[in-house]
């Protein structure tokens, strides 16, 4: 099979198909097939439809042969015609010759749809399985979506590589199964394949690409759903989205390409706020864009954070919340408050370290706060830590080439090694491009959130050439478990960037209150280009609000791309290609600007020779609104905690007896514990709360809420309630639980919880055989009390230890409960 130059082969648009063989006989109707009566009832409609369209042809005897199996060559012929593929490519199979009837079909469909069999052969006569058919149809028609295969009893029999294709085929109704069976390994018949093609045609009926819905998820996230899969790169450009009052800092596309989750720089709180989604490229065709979406929505996050899941394995537990968390509050493990170095909070996850496999833990999280400042009621999670998985898998790599940039996407994180022979160990892999050697390092990780992807610029390997066709080899890589990956080689064409940058979008931000009579107001104009650039030129106002200007409206621009537009402290995404222009703008105005010719150059020196003309509309300056209060609130220092059981709440004004009604309060989202005492102190602004011992089981900030409280002038609480945080420590007192004899003078006392060290305990009385005895020593250490008497006692003597107002306490200063323990 001779090699040919490869071009872009296909793009699924219309659905046409022709079931063929090496010798064919056309028919006008499915009924004309000599074996038409043999076609299964469920396949008749598909066969008739494809026959009516002229897509199906019989064999040399005029038979359709519905139950006959389909070969790889026949499937390639079908899809090459159905998708109108060009017979171009670089494939070279030893068992495919130019005089074969399927030669062009194999060339057209390889390797995009059909891979070789790994031995340099295509194996055209090999029979196609159902899972193989799912792959070529899903790829050919670029179907998306994922179905749950668990409803099929034999789903586990599917090859690992085929699972995702089967999920998509089932989701789109291309495969319905054989009763309760998926039958992935079964050979596919001709009538089955005809049915799959017809179903695919039905599944790919064109719809106008558009936004289906937009909704706020929480204080930092908004969800945009599309009716078709969108291009990941285009959809993850934050400049594609505009929301009143906030800046989009991140856009994440779902696996199926149908949903984009937007993250904002500050609290998402909208009252008839405008949401704009600009046209976005579709996944199927970059030339087809979604319709622009504009809608007014109202949203405020009033729901506190909650836990979605817990995964505990090895030495750590990862607790995942349902939304980004601003503050975790206080975290306790098995009743003991954790130091900050024992856990980390990142976005939606809280990771606790230093755990032991196969141990059971309880984690209390008190005072977790989201970005709308909603404070969660105390959260308790219980889990058992699983043993860590043993990683024996080698890391693999896939690659992509764009110009002179080569991207290496590894299957897992890699281990740093000393691959270049120079300390320290800083390299992840060795890459050889032709004869030029590169090493993958931290500098080549472009996304800190994904440390498996590296991108290098191999321009130096080209020398003075504009392009080279060269061998690329990556080797020496190991995963974090030390498993070495196999060396990987491939050929690629590297070409220098000879294309100047283009302007992608322009936006503005009013930074100061507008003064139309002044030219000293400094606002911001953001210009986002298709790649990082340097700008050095003149920016001229051509029109403002329809008025043309010929002179006097010129600004000198000299800046490099890379500006933190959203103010989150990081330059990421499209911000890397964004230039900030300091300029005086008028609010609520529409401008036409012109950027002078040759003002823009990319980082390899390509200059944009023409002037760049663009339009932009300004908004208004948003000042921070003043908060006014005209009803009852808590005082300046709302809460003072006296000890683990007592705290005082102060109001800003004198209040009535409604403030001493326990039914008007909640603590941690629950009614006050039964037995809580409330009392005015130092007048009628302050109320003291005394909690019963044992009612607070974890340290942390508890949400304290007051309702139905009225001040002395009849004013009620603002918005019907007042909330504040009360920093409480657990108030479960230690209780003596066991006496253990060590020798004839020494015994120990255990407690229901560990007590702190104390060299001089007080409030102890020891009775041996009913008589009070003198003590030689009493020391608290290691969580228990060790007592030594001056005189010996018998092994059968009773021992009683009485505690009264003792100075023995636990880590939270709870005193040991008065009482006695005996042996």
Which secondary structure elements does this structure contain, and how are they paired or packed?
Layout: E1 25-26, H1 41-52, E2 57-58, H2 72-82, H3 103-109, H4 130-141, H5 163-171, H6 190-203, E3 211-218, E4 221-226, H7 232-235, E5 241-243, E6 248-253, E7 259-264, E8 270-277, E9 293-299, E10 307-313, E11 316-321, E12 325-327, E13 330-333, E14 336-337, E15 343-346, E16 349-352, E17 360-366, E18 369-370, E19 379-384, E20 397-402, E21 405-410, E22 429-433, E23 436-440, E24 453-457, E25 467-475, E26 488-495, E27 503-509, E28 523-529, E29 533-544, E30 547-548, E31 554-560, E32 578-583, E33 590-595, E34 600-602, E35 612-617, E36 634-641, E37 646-651, E38 665-667, E39 670-671, E40 677-681, E41 686-690, E42 700-707, E43 721-728, E44 736-741, E45 746-751, E46 764-768, E47 771-772, E48 775-781, E49 784-789, E50 799-803, E51 819-822
Antiparallel strand pairs: 1-2, 3-4, 4-7, 5-8, 6-7, 8-9, 10-11, 11-16, 12-18, 13-14, 13-17, 15-16, 17-19, 20-21, 21-24, 22-23, 22-25, 25-26, 27-28, 28-32, 29-30, 29-31, 29-33, 29-34, 33-35, 36-37, 37-41, 38-39, 38-42, 40-41, 42-43, 44-45, 45-49, 46-47, 46-50, 48-49, 50-51
Helix pairs in contact: 1-6, 2-3, 4-5
């Amino acid at each position: 099979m001779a090699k040919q130059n490869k071009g872009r082969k296909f793009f699924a648009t219309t659905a046409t198909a022709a079931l063929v063989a090496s010798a064919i006989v056309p028919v006008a109707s499915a009924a004309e097939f000599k074996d038409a009566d043999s076609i299964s009832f469920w396949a008749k409609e598909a066969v008739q439809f494809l026959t009516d369209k002229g897509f199906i042809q019989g064999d040399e005897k005029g038979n359709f042969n519905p139950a006959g199996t389909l070969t790889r060559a026949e499937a390639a012929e079908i899809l090459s015609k159905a998708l109108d593929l060009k017979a171009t490519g670089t494939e070279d199979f030893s068992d495919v010759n130019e005089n074969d009837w399927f030669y062009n079909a194999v060339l057209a469909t390889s390797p995009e749809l059909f891979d070789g069999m790994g031995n340099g052969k295509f194996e055209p006569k090999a029979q196609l399985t159902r899972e193989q058919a799912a792959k070529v149809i899903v790829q050919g028609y670029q179907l998306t979506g994922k179905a749950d295969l668990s409803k099929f009893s034999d789903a586990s029999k599917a090859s690992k590589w085929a699972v995702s294709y089967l999920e998509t085929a089932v989701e789109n109704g291309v495969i319905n199964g054989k009763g309760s069976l998926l039958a992935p390994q079964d050979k596919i018949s001709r009538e089955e394949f005809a049915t799959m093609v017809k179903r695919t045609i039905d599944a790919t009926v064109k719809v106008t690409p558009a936004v289906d819905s937009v909704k706020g998820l929480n204080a930092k996230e908004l969800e945009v759903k599309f009716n078709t899969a969108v291009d990941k790169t285009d959809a993850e450009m934050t400049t594609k989205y505009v929301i009143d009052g906030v800046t989009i800092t991140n856009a994440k596309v779902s696996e199926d390409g149908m949903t984009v989750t937007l993250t904002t720089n500050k609290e998402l709180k909208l009252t008839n706020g405008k949401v704009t989604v600009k046209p976005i490229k579709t996944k199927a065709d970059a030339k087809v864009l979604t319709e622009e979406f504009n809608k007014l929505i109202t949203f405020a996050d009033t729901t506190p954070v909650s836990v979605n899941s817990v995964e505990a394995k090895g030495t750590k537990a990862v607790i995942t919340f349902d939304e980004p968390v601003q503050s975790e509050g206080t975290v306790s493990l098995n009743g003991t408050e954790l130091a900050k170095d024992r856990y980390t909070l990142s976005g939606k996850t809280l990771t606790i370290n230093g755990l032991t496999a196969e141990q059971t833990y309880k984690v209390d999280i008190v005072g977790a706060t989201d970005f709308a400042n909603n404070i969660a009621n105390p959260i308790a999670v219980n889990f058992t830590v699983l043993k860590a998985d043993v990683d024996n898998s080698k890391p693999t790599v896939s690659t992509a080439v764009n110009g002179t940039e080569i991207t290496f996407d590894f299957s897992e994180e890699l281990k740093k090694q000393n691959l270049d022979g120079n300390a320290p160990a800083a390299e992840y892999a060795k890459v050889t491009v032709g004869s030029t050697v590169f090493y993958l390092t931290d500098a080549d990780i472009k996304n800190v959130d994904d440390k498996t992807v590296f991108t290098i610029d191999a321009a130096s390997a080209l020398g003075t050439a504009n392009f080279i066709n060269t061998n690329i080899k990556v080797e020496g890589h190991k995963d974090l478990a030390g498993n070495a990956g196999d060396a990987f080689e491939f050929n690629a064409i590297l070409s220098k960037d000879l294309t100047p940058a283009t302007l992608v979008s322009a936006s503005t931000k009013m930074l100061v209150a507008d003064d139309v009579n002044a030219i000293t107001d400094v606002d911001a104009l953001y210009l986002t280009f298709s790649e990082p650039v340097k700008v050095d030129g003149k920016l001229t106002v051509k029109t403002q609000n329809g008025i043309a200007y010929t002179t006097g409206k010129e600004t000198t621009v000299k800046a490099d791309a890379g500006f933190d537009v959203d103010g989150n402290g990081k330059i990421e995404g499209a911000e890397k290609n964004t230039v900030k222009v300091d300029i005086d703008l008028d609010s609520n105005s529409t401008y036409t600007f012109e950027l002078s010719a040759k003002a823009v150059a990319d980082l390899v020196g390509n200059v944009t020779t023409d002037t760049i003309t663009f339009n932009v509309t300004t908004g208004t300056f948003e000042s921070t609104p003043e908060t006014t209060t005209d009803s009852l609130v808590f005082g300046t220092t709302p809460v003072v905690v006296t000890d683990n059981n007592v705290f005082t709440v102060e109001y800003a004004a004198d209040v009535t007896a409604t403030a001493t009604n326990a039914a008007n309060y909640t603590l941690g989202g629950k009614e006050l514990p039964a037995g809580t005492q409330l009392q005015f102190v130092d007048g009628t602004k302050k109320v003291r709360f005394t909690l019963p011992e044992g009612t607070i089981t974890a340290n942390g900030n508890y949400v304290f809420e007051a309702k139905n409280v009225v001040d002395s002038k009849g004013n009620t609480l603002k918005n019907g309630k007042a909330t504040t945080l009360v920093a409480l420590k657990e108030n479960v007192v230690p209780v003596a639980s066991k006496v253990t004899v060590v020798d004839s003078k020494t015994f120990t006392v255990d407690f229901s919880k560990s007590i702190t060290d104390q060299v001089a305990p007080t409030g102890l009385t020891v009775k041996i055989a009913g008589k009070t005895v003198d003590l030689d020593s009493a020391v608290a250490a290691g969580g228990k009390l060790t007592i030594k008497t001056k005189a010996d006692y018998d092994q059968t003597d009773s021992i009683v230890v009485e505690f009264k107002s003792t100075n023995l306490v636990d880590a939270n200063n709870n005193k040991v409960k008065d009482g006695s323990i005996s042996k």
